[in-house]
Amino acid sequence: MDQPFIELIDIHKSFSGNNVLDGVNLAIEKGLVTCVIGKSGCGKSVLLKHIIGLMHPDSGQVCVDGMPTNQMDKRQRHKFHRQISYMFQDNALFDFLTVWENIALPLTEKRKMPMDQIRQRVKEKMQMLEISNHENKYPAQLSGGIKKRVALARALITEPDAVLFDEPTSGLDPVRRNSVHAMISTYQKEFGFTAVIVSHGIPEIFTISQRVAMLDQGKIIYFGTADGISKTDNEIVKAFISGEEA
Known about the structure:
The protein is about 35% helix and about 25% strand. It contains eight helices and ten strands.
């Protein structure tokens, strides 16, 4: 296999003596959609936050293109943070900013790009996600589906190599879950980013995932294709999938 784009190597993380990640190993390939599943509270979001650098392991390494993130210098860390975006479970839009301002925020807060270029890039992303007619609205004026698109536009505005999705369909009914999955799949193909999705949307999430990892008791107990997980002999995996489907 080629060098993974993102690799977690023997990651350990505990909180107040509770081992949340207990030797996690995971290789994420560039350009694919990788889904992370597991019971509530098993550490899926903690895993995502280690990838993006919001949390740091007690031991083990997170590598990007073969480079351990804890060995990166300031320039390399800056490049790394430009490479990866994070789409929060609740969208994390700022209520006091318009749609346009929310999307532009990752670019305007740094102010290293000329404003005319920022305007052009925001315009392009809004057109691609079909939200141009909402640019002067505030989040409270938007439907749940449009909020998801605005959050995705903001995640894509820096043109990252990877986007991490933390429970993007949380609280949605099955129809809207499928709509969000379709949106992610469509734009992942269009923009070509690597996607890592933490999800409870089983079995729907398998239709857009090329790789599935299951986290249980701090370890990855299954990693493989979406088709392969339905044929696994692992009783824990089988029980979890059948329970979630039910």
